[in-house]
Amino acid sequence: MIVGVRVGAVGMTTMDVLAALAGRGDATSRTIIVGLRLPRVAQAALAGAALALSGATLQALFRNPLADPYTLGVSSGASVGAVAAITLGLAQRSVYAVPACALAGALLTVAVVLRLAAMAGRTFDTKVLLLAGVIVGTFCHALVMLVLSFSDVESFRSAIFWMMGSHAGAGWTSVTALGLTLVVGGAAVVAMARPLNALALGERTASSLGVNVRVATWTAIVASASLAAASVAASGVIAFVGLVAPHLVRLRCGNDYRTLLPFSALAGATLMVVADTTARVAFAPSELPIGVVTALIGVPLFLHLLLRRGARA
Question: For 67, which of 4, 58, 135, 205 could close a Cys bridge (C-beta 3.0–4.6 Å)?
Answer without folding.
Answer: 58
